[in-house]
Design a protein that fits this description.
The protein is elongated and about 85 Å long. It is an alpha/beta fold and 165 residues long. The protein is 19% helix and 27% strand. It has a domain at 54-148: Ribosomal protein S11/S14 (Nucleotidyltransferase, domain 5). It is built from 3 helices and 7 strands; from the N terminus they run ββαβββαβαβ.
Length: 165
């Protein structure tokens, strides 16, 4: 059994210490995680805050709610808010005041990215359409343009022929 013993050097003492194979197997093996301190999660690389000066604001105004989404020019969402997320419930979500508050909340979030100018795209027939645009301007954003993208029918497909009885 003398062959099964290994000699290991203890870091605290200069004298060699004899350790059996069983004791050696209990010691932690070197892995990728051995270098990290136990109990601390790996540090994540800090995400660099992107700077966006010109963006798009999409206002979707329905009969029940108003949703404002602010994006970069390529379409990546920076911030969004709705009347519901701004604390309004039920019928009050559809009011112009709720739309204005939602627009101001979305603008506050987007200002953290350095947003200064926006192009606004309004969609829907809700009562909060115009007030949402005013809410964006009230918070200091400069309007470049306003487009109405509300879909409407162009009389669609040809109707089925009339049934003769």
């Amino acid at each position: 059994m003398a062959d099964t013993k290994e000699k290991k050097v203890d870091a605290t003492k200069d004298a060699p210490k004899e350790v059996s194979e069983k004791e050696a197997s209990k010691e932690p093996k070197e892995t990728k995680e051995a270098g990290k301190e136990a109990g601390k999660p790996a540090k994540k690389a800090k995400a660099r805050r992107r700077l966006v000066q010109v963006g798009h604001a999409y206002v979707q105004a329905s009969y029940n709610n108003t949703i404002i989404t602010i994006t970069e020019e390529n379409g990546n969402v920076i911030a969004w808010a709705s009347s519901g997320s701004s604390g309004f419930k039920g019928a009050r979500k559809a009011t112009p005041y709720a739309a204005q508050v939602a627009a101001e909340n979305a603008t506050d979030k987007a200002k953290a990215f350095g947003l200064e100018k926006i192009r606004v795209f309004v969609k829907g027939v809700g009562t909060g359409r115009d007030q949402a645009v005013r809410g964006l301007v009230n918070k200091g954003l400069e309007l470049i343009s306003i487009n109405d993208t509300t879909p409407f029918a162009h009389n669609g497909c040809r109707k089925k022929k009339a049934r003769r009885v």
